């Protein structure tokens, strides 16, 4: 890819009028300030990517040919539609993410913990653990509600011209909105939320509250006066064009009650995994250990007595990724509760027994 200085020399060689040269120089300078690549046109972008204009045009205007869709069940019930790009489009989206979005936007507020390096749901929940009251909000249809026009404005505000902003927006949207499954969607969603995040942060600082956002889950915590601010906080969502899933709005107004935030439990100031998850992991670990013991001792495999909905694959030892799955669940448990004796001992036991059958 040519340097910006080389690009300007090419502009000077092609155009003779000072007005035209100055326009291009200003365009290059604006993008240079944001540390993003200079893209003049569709064909220039095609050259930068090393993709034929025909292929890039298909990716931009026949986007449906470059996605596969499938459904996954939501934890809270219902179905979530996932649109996963094929490798060719995924590589272009990854280029846009790495070279444009992550360079132009690297200053998200501390309250943003979703899709951020070295941050997790634990960072979303922990700041609220000792608060007397917590308000929990959920945004309705988060990715689908961020439309092509919203994305276009993001690229336009970076400094790209109309045609380039339109091409970039086409490459990272599907059916007119952000697809859940594209690598660019999480970052774009955080960029889209920047104004709301700033307004909510300022409001909470003025009131002495804490706030965090993990994707479409927002939590605000503080003292008993927080409950009287529910209407004002809801107005912030409405003023920014954000639709709440009111069925998931939750008010926790007693410090001793069990609170649920983003799949974790807060009880008496301590963050833990839910009882049901704990029970399920224990059951899976127990049966997995029995299977390994039977395999090592050449004994008949144990009978399965777990509920069918909790157990999709009963060939545990012989499932090549199950050992990684169960260890991953134990690692998550220990990430949330580092000192849990059961998770520590079970992880050690499984690792030792896996070494016996290697």
UniProtKB/TrEMBL annotation:
Its EC number(s): 2.7.7.49
Q: Which residues form the Reverse transcriptase domain?
A: 53-266
Reaction(s) catalysed by this chain, per the record, are:
DNA(n) + a 2'-deoxyribonucleoside 5'-triphosphate = DNA(n+1) + diphosphate
**BP GO terms, sorted:** defense response to virus
Keywords noted in UniProt:
Antiviral defense, Magnesium, Metal-binding, Nucleotidyltransferase, RNA-directed DNA polymerase, Transferase
Family matches, as InterPro entries = DNA/RNA_pol_sf, GrpII_Intron_Splice-Mob/Def, Rev_trsase/Diguanyl_cyclase, Reverse_transcriptase_msDNA, RT_dom
Pfam families according to UniProt: RVT_1
- CDD domains in the record: RT_Bac_retron_II (cd03487)
SUPFAM superfamilies recorded: DNA/RNA polymerases
Indicate yes or no for the key word Nucleotide-binding.
no
What is a single molecular function from GO for this protein? metal ion binding
Q: Magnesium: present as a keyword of the record?
A: yes
Q: Which PANTHER family is this protein grouped with?
A: NUCLEAR INTRON MATURASE 1, MITOCHONDRIAL-RELATED (PTHR34047), RNA-DIRECTED DNA POLYMERASE (PTHR34047:SF7)
**Entry similarity comment:** Belongs to the bacterial reverse transcriptase family.
The name this protein carries in UniProt is RNA-directed DNA polymerase
The organism named in the record is Iodobacter fluviatilis
Q: Output the lineage of the source organism.
A: Bacteria, Pseudomonadati, Pseudomonadota, Betaproteobacteria, Neisseriales
């Amino acid at each position: 890819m040519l340097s910006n200085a080389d690009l300007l020399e090419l502009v000077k060689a092609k155009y003779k009028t000072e007005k035209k040269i100055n326009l291009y120089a200003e365009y290059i300078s604006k993008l240079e300030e944001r540390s993003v690549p200079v893209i003049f046109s569709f064909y220039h972008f095609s050259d930068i990517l090393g993709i034929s204009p025909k292929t890039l045009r298909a990716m931009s205007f026949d986007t449906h040919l470059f996605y596969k869709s499938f459904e996954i069940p939501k934890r809270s019930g219902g179905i979530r539609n996932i649109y996963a790009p094929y490798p060719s489009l995924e590589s272009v989206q990854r280029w846009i993410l790495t070279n444009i979005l992550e360079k132009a936007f690297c200053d998200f507020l501390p309250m943003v913990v979703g899709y951020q390096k070295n941050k997790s749901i634990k960072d979303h929940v922990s700041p609220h653990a000792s608060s007397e009251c917590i308000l929990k909000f959920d945004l309705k249809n988060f990715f689908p509600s961020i439309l092509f026009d919203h994305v276009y404005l993001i690229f336009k505000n970076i400094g790209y011209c109309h045609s380039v902003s339109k091409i970039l927006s086409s490459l990272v949207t599907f059916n007119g909105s952000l697809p859940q499954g594209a690598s660019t969607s999480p970052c774009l969603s955080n960029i889209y939320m920047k104004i709301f995040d700033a307004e909510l942060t300022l409001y909470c600082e003025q009131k002495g509250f804490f706030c965090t956002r993990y994707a479409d889950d927002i939590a605000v915590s503080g003292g008993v006066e927080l409950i009287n601010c529910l209407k004002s906080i809801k107005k912030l969502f409405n003023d920014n064009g954000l639709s709440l899933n009111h069925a998931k709005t939750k008010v926790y107004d007693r410090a001793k009650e069990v609170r649920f935030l983003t799949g974790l439990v807060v009880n008496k100031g301590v963050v833990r995994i839910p009882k049901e998850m704990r029970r399920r992991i224990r059951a899976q670990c127990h049966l997995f250990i029995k299977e390994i013991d039977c395999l090592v001792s050449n004994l008949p495999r144990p009978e399965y007595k777990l509920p069918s909905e909790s157990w999709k694959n009963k060939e545990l030892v012989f499932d090549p990724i199950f050992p990684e799955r169960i260890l991953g669940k134990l690692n998550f448990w220990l990430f949330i509760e580092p000192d849990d004796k059961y998770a520590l001992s079970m992880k050690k036991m499984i690792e030792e027994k896996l070494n016996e059958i290697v």
